[in-house]
Specification:
- The strands form 3 sheets. Strands 1-2 form a two-stranded antiparallel sheet. The chain has a two-stranded antiparallel sheet with strand order 3-4.
- Helix 2 runs antiparallel to helix 3, helix 6 (about 80-105) packs parallel to helix 8 and helix 7 (about 105-130) packs across helix 8 (about 145-160).
- The radius of gyration is 22 Å and the shape is globular.
- It contains 13 helices and 6 strands.
- It has helices at about 1-15, 20-40, 45-55, 60-65, 70-75, 80-105, 105-130, 145-160, 175-190, 195-215, 225-235, 270-285, 290-305, and strands at about 60, 140, 165, 170-175, 240-245, 250-255.
- It folds into 2 domains: about 1-230, Rhomboid-like fold (Up-down Bundle), CATH 1.20.1540; about 265-305, no CATH class.
- By secondary structure, the chain is mainly alpha-helical.
- Pfam families: DUF6576, Rhomboid.
Length: about 300
């Protein structure tokens, strides 16, 4: 047990490990809720578990939402079914690693959070303005990371539409077709029993597409998210130690400096020779053969077009 805890701490200590951190947070919340559900059910206090879930799920009613505004964030870290979280986390990992490799860890976080938030907003807006959903307004609740995962998936498909996944029984399939299939599926189910969740999927897909398109044109939608994450991280970051050196009755004070690996923003724009070399490598060995720096250079070059 201690080894597992140590492994988790080690993963959270890594600065460029945002995708794994998101998956670990979702898994931890699920396990805590699962244990709570078992305990409260066996003790015949299931009402307490219902109250907890009610404060984590996103309500469709704007009136109810005003009393629990935090649910716009908590809902996409909350799952109560093993297959729901398993599918969402696998979906997130498969596509999220591409965003991580090509654009850096911070953009995985931005896509996940923006997709979840916008998906939740779309869900509430449509339930409150379309007469079809009015009879279900007060009873409707939403939970799960599907909208956030959709944003990451569609973002990756927009960035690398011809990248292929090898699927069991189907073989290699371009990820743009995988994303398109799930978008059509969600669209078809917007009038089904899980209409709210599928509306949120479409909201997340919208964010994923426009996030990448704007980024390729030089506009980064994630800047407010980066600022908030840095502020939040700064609250828990240890202050650098101060060292005092005495020399000839003079005092010199120096503070330790934190360094981090370069993000895609620090990658220099490659020249045509480098681009040709990278493209040749892709034609011979595929996208998977590129290093992270080469992938980021390729994306940097695409922004200059």
């Amino acid at each position: 047990m201690s080894n597992i805890i140590d492994d988790i701490k080690r993963e959270f200590s890594k600065s460029e490990n945002s995708l794994v951190k998101i998956i670990l947070i979702n898994t931890a919340v699920f396990l805590v809720l699962l244990i709570s559900k078992i305990i409260f059910t066996l003790s015949q206090s299931s009402g307490i578990y219902a109250w907890i879930m009610n404060n984590l799920q996103l309500p469709a009613s704007t009136t109810e939402f005003l009393y629990r505004p935090w649910t716009l964030i908590t809902y996409f870290f909350t799952h109560d079914d093993i297959f729901h979280i398993l599918f969402n986390m696998l979906f997130l990992y498969w596509f999220g690693r591409l965003i991580d490799e090509y654009l850096g860890a911070k953009r995985v976080v931005a896509l996940y959070l923006l997709g979840g938030i916008f998906g939740g907003v779309i869900y509430m807006v449509i339930y409150n303005i379309l007469p079809y959903f009015q009879p279900h307004l007060e009873q409707s609740r939403m939970l799960g990371a599907s909208a956030a995962a959709f944003a990451v998936a569609v973002g990756a498909s927009t960035l690398l539409p011809n990248y292929t996944f090898n699927l069991i029984f189907l073989g290699p399939i371009r990820i743009k077709f995988i994303a398109l299939f799930y978008i059509i599926l969600s669209l078809a189910q917007t009038v089904g029993p899980n209409a709210g969740g599928n509306l949120a999927h479409l909201g997340g897909a919208f964010v994923g597409y426009f996030f990448i398109k704007l980024l390729q044109n030089g506009t980064d939608m994630g800047k407010p998210i980066y600022a908030l994450v840095n502020l939040w991280s700064g609250l828990f970051r240890k202050k650098p130690s101060m060292q005092v050196t005495y020399r000839e009755k003079q005092v010199y004070r120096s503070t330790s400096v934190y360094t981090s690996t370069a993000s895609s923003a620090t990658i220099e724009t490659p020249d045509q020779t480098e681009i040709d070399s990278i493209l040749d490598k892709i034609s011979k060995s595929g996208y998977e053969s590129l290093t992270k720096e080469e992938k980021q250079k390729l994306f940097k070059a695409s922004q200059q077009k």
